[in-house]
Structure formats: C-alpha cells, structure tokens
Amino acid sequence: MPKSAGYVNAEFLQKAAERVKHLKQRTYEWMDIKTGDHVLDVGCGPGMDTVALAALVGPDGKVTGLDIDEEMLVKADAFAKEQGVKGIVEHRYGDVIDMPFRENAFDSIRAERLFQVLPGPYDRPTVFQEMVRVTKPGGMIVLADTDWATASVNFENSELERRLMTFFALKMRPNGFAGRQFYQMFMQKHLSEVQIEHFPMVMTDLEETPFGEWLKQEAVLANIATEAEMDLWTRQLSELSKTGQFYSSANMVIVAGRKSINKPD
Ligand SMILES: C[S@@+](CC[C@H](N)C(=O)[O-])C[C@H]1O[C@@H](n2cnc3c(N)ncnc32)[C@H](O)[C@@H]1O
Fold first, then answer.
1. 143: domain range?
2. Which ligand 1 atom minimizes the distance to the CA of 41?
C-alpha cells in the first residue's frame, strides 16, 4: 500500500518500543487481561506488543494483531516465530474501519499510535465504534497516542520553534492531535471506568526525533521557514545533540474504558 504522511518503518517502531516501554506496560495493565483471554492489537506494526501480550494470555489464550501494511505483518510474524509464540499469536491483514471480526469477539483491545496515522477521510468516531463493536460487553478498550500539540524543543529562537512545532503537528502527521481526542470519544460512546494517563516522552538525541533533516526539508518546501532558518535549526540542534545538551519532549496520552454490559453501543 502507498505510504502516507507520517509513515514510520518497522525499525523505527522497534527502537521506539524501548523508549515507550512504560507506556506499553500500562496499556497491558489497563486491558485487565486474564489467562485464556483473546485480545486484539489494532495497527500492530512489527508485533512488539502482540508478542508481549502472548505472555499475559498464556498458552490457552490468543492474541490477534491487525494491520493494513503487509510488510509490517511479515515482520510481526517473523518476530512471533523468533520469540516462540507463533502458536498463540496471529497477525491479520485488515482495515480498522471495517475489521474482519464478528462482534463481541475480543475480551479486550488496544491501539497504540494508530489514530495519529489515520488520514482525514477516516471518520474517527466511526473507527472507535468499530473497536467497540468487536469488544465483548464488559471488555476494556485502551488507546494510546501522542498529542503533538505538546511537542517542545529547547531552541534559542522560540518563535521559529513554535512555527515548526505547529507545522509538524498540523501537516507532518495525518492526525497530530490524536492523543487529546480520545477522552471525548470514550465519553460519547458511554464507556465506563474511563481512565486517563499522560506519559512524557523525553528525547535527548536529535536522531530519535522526527525534527531533524526530514523536518528541515519539509518546512522549506512548504514555505514555513527559509533555508537559512532551517540550516541554523539543524546545525544548532545537531551540535547540542552531539554534546549531550539537546532536549525535546512530547506527551503521550492513554485513555482506557470498559464497554457497557447492559446496553448495546
Ligand atoms: C505508528 S505505527 C504503530 C505500530 C504499533 N502500534 C506500535 O506502537 O509499535 C501505526 C500502525 O498502524 C497501521 N495502520 C495504519 N492505518 C491503518 C488502518 N487503516 N488499519 C489498520 N492498521 C493501520 C500502520 O500500518 C502501522 O503499522
């Protein structure tokens, strides 16, 4: 499939998994998993989470990962095989807007950094409704994503930094504000026991961020900043990064809630 704006490859996601391991752990806790459960990871990428979830559902349980990118699915299968959990974990091709699962199929489900890559035509409440549909009554739904409105880089020209961060959130991610939209979706669908937690992502290596060469090129192309401004941006930040002084941060948001047992949503 064609790669959309905001596409990140499997290697980036594998590295990022270490940086956000506390957030991942909390999403698993909030899924409230019991051994023998059948759980779903939507937008599973290279399988970092499906493999981790296998340990929680145990040999009598099942983990399904869904993704629309076949390359990711191949990597996810290889990782599950390497980790010896191929018998418990399956990775399936599909689109979150119309998942190939019957209703009430899963004990709990999660989606991490999926909503930020969903382009405009995807109606987000409809996507969320699809997640509610496939979750059993009483099951937990857990979403985690970045709110790129909180991105901040320590750079001496704050006006340029604000301009670039706004550009990044608005244009460089199909939905840069995903993290702050979840709570409203959970409340609209009347989920219960809704919980919210923020995880600050602190990045002290420019290479770990999406704010280096790529942003420089895109900002110049879009006339957001001049070449001279962007030369200064990358030069100064690279220097700070090399000397161990670079600092940037952004918040990730987790929202979890339980599907009602009583009334159909
Ligand atoms: C930023 S990656 C996050 C991967 C993984 N959740 C993680 O945290 O490592 C987003 C993933 O969502 C998948 N994705 C994007 N649009 C999708 C859609 N419409 N249906 C299912 N998966 C989708 C992408 O292929 C990609 O693997």
1. 10-151+173-202+251-258
2. 6
Cα 158 to ligand 1 centre (Å): 33
Question: Residues of the chain whose pLDDT is less than 50?
Answer: 1-2, 265
Q: What is the distance between the alpha carbons of residues 153 and 10, in angstroms, rounded to a whole number?
A: 25
**Distance of CA 67 from the midpoint of ligand 1 (Å):** 6
Give the nearest ligand 1 atom to 96 CA. Answer: 20
Ligand 1: distance of its center to the CA of 239 in Å? 33
> What is the pLDDT, as a whole number, of residue 213?
94
| The overall pTM is greater than 0.85 | yes
Report yes or no on 157 lying in a domain: no
pLDDT single digits (tens) 188-220: 999 999 999 999 999 999 998 999 999 999 999
The Cα–Cα gap between 239 and 237 comes to 5
Residue 265 within any structural domain of the chain: no
In a domain, 69, yes or no: yes
What whole-number distance in Å separates Cα of residue 30 and Cα of residue 125?
A: 21
Q: In total, how many domains does the chain have?
A: 1
Residue carrying structure tokens 């990118």? 69
Spatial contact of 86 and 62, defined as CB atoms under 8 Å apart:
no
CATH number at residue 197: 3.40.50.150
